[in-house]
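Protocol check, entry for the methods section draft. Step 1: assemble the input record (protein sequence plus ligand SMILES). Step 2: submit for complex structure prediction. Step 3: store the structure tokens unaltered in the notebook. Ligand used here: guanosine-5'-triphosphate. Step 1 record:
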Amino acid sequence: MCGTCGCADSQSHSHEHVSLEQNVLAKNDAIARDNRAWLRKRDAIALNLMSSPGSGKTTLLERTLTTLARVRPAAVIEGDQATSLDAERLRRTGAPAVQVNTGAGCHLDAALVRSALSRLDPPNGAVVFVENVGNLVCPAMFDLGEQRKVVVISVTEGTDKPLKYPYMFAAADLVVINKIDLLPYVDFDVELCAKNARSVNPDLVLLTLSATTGEGLPAWYDWIAAQ
Ligand SMILES: Nc1nc2c(ncn2[C@@H]2O[C@H](COP(=O)(O)OP(=O)(O)OP(=O)(O)O)[C@@H](O)[C@H]2O)c(=O)[nH]1
Ligand SMILES: [Mg+2]
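Step 3, stored output:
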């Protein structure tokens, strides 16, 4: 696992490696619990969106924020290694967005989210969307204090991804299969992808949608409302 240890050769000193990793994750989990309590006091929730780079997290949030703003307050913590491009896109919807740059880091952690929450200062009752760094590996390990974990996969990525990145799909509460407008042009079997995802996580909720055309979005909004 990266982000928890700088060592290049974990095999030669695996005991130290494992205990350092456990230490880092235990500290993270304690801060995540504080974040959860902090959000609960404001009657707010956080939803952690994770995916490979380019699966459509920001596009889905652009549409969601535009629609949701009419119903309840929403805000975004935007995680990327570099730039504030995504936060700028999301602010154009009128929602507040705080950009967090992780530099060489490949995921958000609870401490980064804690300081972003205090900058964001979300109003009571808000839904705080956290867009994690595009990566199907490391973000799965780090509790941020979110209410739910959402994994976005798009139809251009292949149906085998839940099998090849099982930790991410095992951690998810919801899997969104995005870009279904492209199904006529790609070799992607939605049922097979769903079966693969359920084989690593039988409790998953699955939604198919197109963030670009809006197809399938009502079920996504219903899912958010139910949280
Ligand atoms: N055809 C189609 N394209 C989409 C859809 N959703 C997103 N895209 C396109 O996919 C590309 C990447 O979308 P983003 O929303 O930036 O993806 P992301 O997951 O936020 O990417 P990172 O933040 O870099 O991880 C853009 O060119 C979008 O226009 C969709 O439903 N259909
Ligand atoms: Mg993005």
